[in-house]
Specification:
Two copies of one chain form a homodimer.
Chain A: E1 7-13, H1 21-33, E2 38-44, H2 47-52, E3 56-58, H3 64-71, H4 87-99, E4 102-109, H5 111-127, E5 132-137, H6 153-173, E6 177-182, H7 189-192, E7 207-209, H8 217-231, E8 234-239, H9 250-257, E9 263-264, E10 270-271, H10 277-290, E11 299-303, H11 307-310, H12 317-335, E12 340-349, E13 355-361, H13 363-366, H14 387-393
Parallel strand pairs in A: 1-2, 1-4, 4-5, 5-12, 6-8, 6-11, 7-8
Antiparallel strand pairs in A: 2-3, 9-10, 12-13
Helix pairs in contact in A: 1-3, 1-12, 4-5, 9-10
């Protein structure tokens, strides 16, 4: 087993915020404080951007109270970046790290961040510069490979599930059709979480559409018509990334069908502005198709937006603990002989006995490609989510609010 | 003091949901169970609509566990309605209540609901039918007269404040201009709550626009330019109901300025669809005006939507207790001699000594007209909120999440 090398450590946070990305930061800082080989602990401001621009935060000697407050704060406390470094950019990263005698590089992020660490790590190896490089997983999308699930997902899932629970009661009190658009461009993990708090067979969401299944507009209308005819209301969960069988975003097809002008830029790409466009277009379509049968039909849509990833004070306790553990474990791996890798979770208990243990994954196995929601966790009709997903995701939320109903007719 | 008359009681819930509207329902039910004069407790399904259609729920003998679960559930457990009864409709309400020997009528809602109870009460008086009629206040808009504040507001304020806290950290991590549209067609109470969790002078929201101040588009652009130039980012809170000095919704003027086609219906009213239109238009305008100076400026908008009124599991504890108290107090008033009225709050302590006591308000003083955010609680420039509002609103949230920051440069 290799000894811990002497030198400085740096931590960066990349990509979109989560409610627990700072738990991983603080877990890593706490573990680094315990390690004699680590001299200075630096933070990279705005991720890789801050490394190449040499904008660093001093993370030495922070007191427990500050650390705890930061850990409980959503969104990257170090600042983040959307930069996806190419080889040249990675070279500048490596040069900046080498200049500061960084021997421990921790990068909290998704699959693109794993790829960045992989490239920087290879450059260090080629240069014969000894540096331990660890990726710490983070994404509300839950789409990283190898690991059972990703820190950040449980809190976002709790938020989405709770939003649907309350909104379902809202829809029950003032019946109509309600469309909620959930984050997830390529994978339906977060949209699937809409079902986690569903009370019984009459509760919403009644229909769930994820990017893993090609969206068929006529089938959608038939689905809504069936539910509305049966219950007099319908709550619908839709991933922002749903696309038709050719892969074209649903918004484009809907805009054309509804007679909206679709603008294209000089490259021929469709320009669709409007933060609520998908929900609005689906709502307009439903109104258009059902208004003959139901004259006063009430149709509304909401697009949950950034609240899903950065709402304060509502993180999953399980997610918080696991994110902290992931940060801490990355340091333990890096300082006890492991050269590089990504921290991953293995589930070692189900239901009430739910627990995880960490293991080291290879950077190349986590980098770049992502993981979809398994097709068998989506129902055959492609408009609902199976119990197997609920069993998988429920423990990650740390528990959901309880709701009650009144039913007895007088 | 009049004796409690023997007979049945009915409770209804009207208008838009809140997180604590069922606390008031349960408070009333619990108090009615303790009253010997009350024979049966009925619930009106979907408010006045259920009364005239004789759709009732049996609320007798519900166990404590069910009541507690219902109390903690957002949105009217009895179902709600948007109906605004005229005199003829009120007559049918009264006839339905008389038929069921209702002697206690409790109606949870906003100013329109207070007006309904006022009319029904007058009809009962004219008919010589003895009935005690109480309005129990409820609205996230906080716009009822007489009372210090309204049950439902504290929870919505807590949600909006927490959303802005997290989103501000998000905006700090990935800098740009972020516009958040908050509920409130006529009054800025809820939008003002965006400032409650603001950490320090650099934290957002940096600009706040409420309907009480006429919106000036050019001044808005100048405000954003100033903040963005100074901080490199800008988080903005906007009420959905902002209008220009002629009272025209801002969306209409923006649509014309941005070159969008503005459709008008057969009555000449502007038709603006799009759940995110206001935020999107403001965002497009900012991009258009600032892009020459800042080429890669990042502008995003979110419209918080229904989550503000019905999110599950995040109610203000203070609001929950007060809503329960309002329901209970309405029954105490009705069964101990008071004939009619609305329950109102009087604040009897400030800051850490915050407390309320209830008093009876006249229905006519609560009905119809509403209460704006005082002009002196908005800054002179009309783009920010004063400390006096924070002192007023903070206790109603029951406390906000704590957030932390890292600041020391290396």
């Amino acid at each position: 087993m290799a000894d811990a090398i002497k030198g400085n450590a740096i931590i960066g946070q990349s990509g979109g915020p989560t409610a627990v990305i700072n738990q991983s930061l603080v877990g890593a800082i706490e573990a680094l404080y315990e390690c004699d080989a680590v001299e200075n602990v630096l933070g990279a401001q705005n991720a890789v951007r801050g490394i190449v621009e040499e904008r660093f935060l001093d993370l030495n000697g922070l007191d427990a109270e500050t650390l705890e407050a930061v850990a409980n704060t959503p969104a990257a406390a170090l600042g983040s970046s959307r930069d996806k470094p190419d080889a040249e950019y990675c070279k500048r990263i490596f040069q900046s790290l080498e200049k500061r005698n960084i021997r421990y590089f921790f990068y909290i992020g998704g699959n693109d961040s794993a790829d960045t660490t992989r490239i920087v790590n290879e450059m260090a190896n080629e240069a014969g510069y000894e540096m331990r490089v660890f990726h710490i997983p983070k994404t509300i999308d839950n789409d990283l490979r190898v690991t059972d699930h990703c820190p950040g997902y449980g809190s976002a899932a709790k938020f989405v599930a709770s939003a649907f629970m309350g909104d379902d009661r809202d829809n029950n009190a003032l019946p109509g059709i309600k469309i909620n658009v959930v984050m997830g461009r390529n994978a339906g993990w977060l949209t699937a979480a809409s079902v986690l708090g569903r009370g019984d067979v009459d509760c919403g969401p009644h229909l769930v559409y994820v990017p893993e299944v090609a969206f068929d507009t006529d089938k959608f209308i038939a689905d809504v018509r069936e539910v509305y005819g049966r219950l007099g209301r319908c709550q619908i969960a839709v991933s922002e990334g749903i696309a038709d069988e050719t892969g074209m975003p649903v918004t484009v097809g809907l805009a054309e069908r509804l007679g909206h002008r679709v603008e294209r830029d000089s490259h021929g790409n469709v320009q669709l502005s409007g933060s609520g466009a998908l929900g609005d277009f689906l709502g307009d379509l439903v109104k258009q198709e059902l208004k003959q049968q139901y004259k006063t039909i009430r149709v509304r849509s909401d697009t949950f937006g950034y609240l899903q990833r950065s709402f304060a004070g509502f993180a999953s306790e399980v997610d918080q603990k696991e994110a902290r553990l992931a940060g801490r474990t990355a340091v333990q791996y890096a300082t006890s002989g492991d050269i590089d890798g990504s921290v991953a979770f293995n589930r070692i208990g189900e239901g009430e006995n739910y627990a995880v243990e960490c293991f080291r994954a290879e950077l190349k196995d986590v980098a770049r490609e992502t993981k979809d929601l398994p097709r068998e966790w989506i129902n055959e009709a492609g408009n609902g989510i199976q119990q197997a997903f609920i069993d998988y995701a429920m423990p990650l939320t740390g528990g959901l609010p309880k709701v009650g109903q009144l039913r007895k007719m007088a």
